[in-house]
Every structure is written in C-alpha cells, then in structure tokens.
User: Which sequence fits this backbone?
C-alpha cells in the first residue's frame, strides 16, 4: 500500500489512478501526515444468493409486523 500527500497526488492523479486500476495497488492519501482517503480498485459485490444463501429457510415472515407473536424468545 502506497502513501502519498494530497499535494503530490494533485499533480500526478492520472498516473496513480492508472496504477490502482492496472495493479490493484491501494493508495492512502495524507494531509499533513495524517491519512484522510484510501483509493482502491472498485470491486463488484457478490450476488445476493451468495451473501444470504445460508439464511434461506431460516427467516420467518409475519403478515402484520405490529401484531404480537406467540413465540417466546429462548435464552441462549
């Protein structure tokens, strides 16, 4: 992970963006030595099925969300 000041980034932004795009390098931008922004390659989000697949069949749906349920919460 590279670190660069805002002033240096301003003059060479396109060069650094190409580096991030081609090599996947992450860049931390600093202001007076303190990190303020991280630039990284955009990644696609995993599909919904992959994210929530293990929950299939475990979620209960109730018609009226304001009606009390008859089930009690069990202690863990």
Assistant:
């Amino acid at each position: 992970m590279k670190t660069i000041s805002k002033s240096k980034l301003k003059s060479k932004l396109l060069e650094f963006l190409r580096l991030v795009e081609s090599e996947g390098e992450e860049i931390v931008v600093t202001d007076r030595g303190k990190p303020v922004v991280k630039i990284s390659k955009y990644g696609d989000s995993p599909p919904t099925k992959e994210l929530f697949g293990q929950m299939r069949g475990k979620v209960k749906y109730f018609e009226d969300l304001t009606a009390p349920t008859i089930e009690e919460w069990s202690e863990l």
Q: What stands out?
A: Residues 63 and 69 are 11 Å apart (CA to CA). The chain has one domain: 2-55. Helices lie at 6-11, 13-23, 48-52.
